[in-house]
Amino acid sequence: ANTYNNMAVAYKKQGQVQRALELYSKDLAITRTILGDQHAHTAITLSNIGKALVESGEVAEGRSVLLRAKAIFLATLGADHPHVRNVDVILAAAPVPDDGPAQEKPAD
Q: Could you tell me the pTM of the whole model?
């Protein structure tokens, strides 16, 4: 899983966001299988996916994934953890979808 994540980061830095998303998805599948849906490492991968989606223009989906990552971080690491703050920074910089933040729900 870590190798897929590292490769995804490299592709994303090169501007190849779709390829990065493919690799993040592989990382997520492995991480979920080994650690489960509610693990902090799963949330790290979700936050990477959410950020990549926002950066690629898929803002609504990206925000939903980021909210899911934040929920896991809050449950596993607490509100004061830097991962929670990082997600908040990304969410604050991402434009709010047309249907507004009240309609946003975390992705499953």
A: 0.87
